[in-house]
Amino acid sequence: MSTLFISDLHLSAERPHLIKQFVALMQGEARKAEALYILGDLFEAWLGDDAVLPDMTAPIEALKALTESGVPVYVMAGNRDFLMGEGFEAMTGAKLIDDPVVIDLYGTPTLLMHGDTLCTDDVTYQQVRARVRDPAWIAAALAMSIEERIKTAQEMRAQSQAHTQSTAEEIMDVNADAVMEALHRHGVTRLIHGHTHRPAVHILQVNGQPATRIVLDDWYQQASLLRCDRAGCKLIAG
Ligand code: MN
Fold first, then answer.
1. What confidence category does residue 207 fall into, taking pLDDT thresholds of 50, 70 and 90?
2. What's the pLDDT tens digit per position in 80-121?
3. What global pTM score does this model have?
């Protein structure tokens, strides 16, 4: 038995092949998994549980079928789909989990994060994140008409793209001190996150002990996942 981790699928109507690959994973290997964790940015955009885009019906139904088959699915919000709520849980049977959260992964306490909060060098990004994660901002966004939400999401996307294009790659990666601080604070020696789209297994030292930071791959090029079992964790390219 194994536990699967995926993140940064960015499912959208623009990339129908990824929707097909996601559905295939839900109907295939995920059925045999002990649990599936999705660590953020499952969707390119999520405008609220009452505004599901038509092309997202297939992935939602695939998630629902997976949870109904008895596989627990845990979903963390990313910076694209943080408006997921109880409606999303009801339509998929998945459980929304906090960012960060520590789980017991085959005896090893493991910290799960989307990863964006570790990018502390990107001050502009962190300011925007703090603003849009404010409950008052979220309530105001969800009170908008769906047309207004689409417009707001497009404006935010354009600002984000302009920022990404004008910001150095290193600034947008995780900050090493933020990683160490997170490992210390949670008392763990393993961290799994996505967001940066820089898949790797980094070996670090925390209090003289070896620690591992596993970065999940995105799905822009291919479907990929992390498979963990009693023997350890392995990144699998699609
Ligand atoms: Mn992200």
1. confident
2. 999 999 999 999 999 999 999 999 999 999 999 999 999 999
3. 0.96
Q: Looking at the 3D structure of the chain, how many domains does it have?
A: 1
What is the rounded average pLDDT of the residues 24-28?
97
Which CATH number characterizes residue 113's domain? 3.60.21.10
Range of the domain at 223: 3-236
**Pick from 10, 59, 48, 71: which is nearest to 195 by CA?**
10
Q: CA 28 to CA 2: how far, in whole Å?
A: 13
Q: Quick check: helix, strand or coil at residue 209?
A: strand
Give, in order, the Cα–Cα distances in Å from 178 to each of 4, 78, 115.
Answer: 25, 18, 10
How many whole angstroms from 98 Cα to the centroid of ligand 1? 15
What is the 110 CA–ligand 1 centroid distance (Å)?
A: 20
Chain CA centroid to CA 178, Å:
18
What pairs with residue 74 in β-bridges? Answer: 37, 95
Ion ligand 1 neighbours (CB, 5 A) are 41, 78-79, 195
The token pair at 116 is 């964006």
